[in-house]
């Protein structure tokens, strides 16, 4: 089974059915709303930790797609320092990870 779109035989002629995709998007949005609702019941520390974990996974997994395997703990620590979240067990991170985190977290500007 192909993992990426470009691995399919006719990937340049990729098509989809809007109705089927919209059903999936609707289900995803419902799950997102449930998660957001649950997040509102958490205290500030729990929200910060959940946000930190989500951002860490986003950076690690996005880099993995590009073939760059990053150390989870170093990315986690780099993001925590950048967001001013004080947690125990922060580890030093190298310049490469700091650069990746900076690039991933910086606001995107439309050109």
Description:
With 111 residues, the chain is mostly helical. 61% of the residues lie in helices and 0% in strands. It has four helices and no strands. It has helices at residues 18-40, 44-65, 72-83, 95-105. α2 crosses α3. The longest helix is centred in the N-terminal third of the chain and has 23 residues, at 18-40. It is flat and about 50 Å long. The termini are far apart. The model has no long low-confidence stretch (mean pLDDT 87).
Low-confidence stretches: none
Structural class: mainly alpha
Mean pLDDT: 87
Distance N to C terminus:
38 Å
What gross morphology would you assign? flat
* Assembly status: single chain
User: Number of DSSP strands?
Assistant: 0
Share of β-strand residues: under 5%
Q: Report the order of strands and helices.
A: HHHH
Number of helices: 4
Helix content: 55-70%
Gyration radius over CA = 18 Å
Q: How is the biggest beta sheet arranged?
A: none
Give the arrangement of secondary structure elements.
Layout: H1 18-40, H2 44-65, H3 72-83, H4 95-105
Q: In a nutshell, what does this entry contain?
A:
With 111 residues, this protein is mainly alpha-helical. It has helices at 18-40, 44-65, 72-83, 95-105.
Features:
111 residues
């Amino acid at each position: 089974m192909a993992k990426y779109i470009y691995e399919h035989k006719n990937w340049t002629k990729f098509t989809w059915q809007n109705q089927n995709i919209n059903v999936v998007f609707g289900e995803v949005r419902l799950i997102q709303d449930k998660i957001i609702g649950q997040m509102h019941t958490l205290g500030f520390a729990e929200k910060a930790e959940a946000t930190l974990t989500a951002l860490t996974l986003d950076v690690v997994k996005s880099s993995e797609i590009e073939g760059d395997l990053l150390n989870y703990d170093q990315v986690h620590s780099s993001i925590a320092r950048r967001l001013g979240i004080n947690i125990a067990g922060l580890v030093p991170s190298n310049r490469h990870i700091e650069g990746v985190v900076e690039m991933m977290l910086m606001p995107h500007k439309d050109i």
